[in-house]
Amino acid sequence: SSVLTQPPSVSVAPGQTARITCGGDNSGSKSVHWYQHKPGQAPVLVVYENNDRPSGIPARFSGSNYGNTATLTISRVEAGDEADYYCQVWERSSEHGEFGGGTKLTVL
Amino acid sequence: VQLVQSGAEVKKPGASVKVSCQASGYTFYTYYIHWVRQAPGHGLEWMAMINPSGGSASYAPKFQGRVAMTRDTSTSTVYMELSSLRVHDTAVYYCARVDCSTATCWSDYWGQGTLVTVSS
User: Fold this and answer.
1) Does the distance separating the beta carbons of B58 and A95 come in below 8 Å?
2) In chain B, how many H helices and how many E strands?
3) Which of A67, B43, B89, B119 is the most buried (most CB within 10 A)?
4) Shortest distance, CA A84 to any CA of chain B (angstroms)
5) Strands B9-11 and B114-118
6) What is the pLDDT of residues B14-61, one digit of tens each?
7) Hey, is the C-beta of A92 within 8 angstroms of any chain B C-beta?
C-alpha cells in the first residue's frame, strides 16, 4: 500500500471545481507531482514541483502543497478531464519514486 | 521527445521478459529513465530507474533481485528485464523520461506502454 493517501474517487459537475488531495507523513516537505491517466493511454504530467505546469497544460490545472497535504485543483471541469489522477513524490536519498493510490475523477 | 516501447508479450510463470524503450528527440544520456507499471485494477507502481550515462540503476525494494535495467547508448535504448514472472506481474509496463530539479524528480515524457501477460 502507498504511503501517499488519495481519495478513491471525486465527482463534480461540468464547470465546477474539482479538488484531489494527496496526504502523507512528510508530503509537505517533499515536492509533489501530478499525473492524469486515461484508459488505454500513457500518463500525462499535469503539475510538477507542487504548482508548476508543463507547457500545453491548461491553466485550469493548479497545485498546492501545505502541511501534510498536497492538492490538485481543476477549475471549470470539462468532460475530457475525466480520468485517474496520481500524485507522486521522489525520495532523493534512496532515488526511489512513490505514487499515491490514485483518484478517479468522474464528471457528472 | 519520443519514447517507443516494444510490443506486447505473453509469458508463462517462471519465465523472464525483456521490454525495450527507445528514446529520440533529445540527448539520450542526459536524462534518467523510470519504469512504472499498472496491473489490472490497480494504480501506478514505481519499479526502477536507470542513468543512461553510466548505466547505474536503483530499484524499488519489492523488485530488488528480480528486475535488471540495461542500456545501449548506440541505439538510445533502455531495457527492463523482469525475471521469475508470476501471474500478478501481468500489467502494462511504461518507461518514462525523468526530469529533475535539485530536490526532486518527475516524469515528463512517457512511452506508450507494453502489456505483459503472464499465464500458464
Assistant:
1) yes
2) 0, 11
3) B89
4) 9
5) parallel
6) 999 999 999 999 999 999 999 999 999 999 999 999 999 989 999 999
7) yes
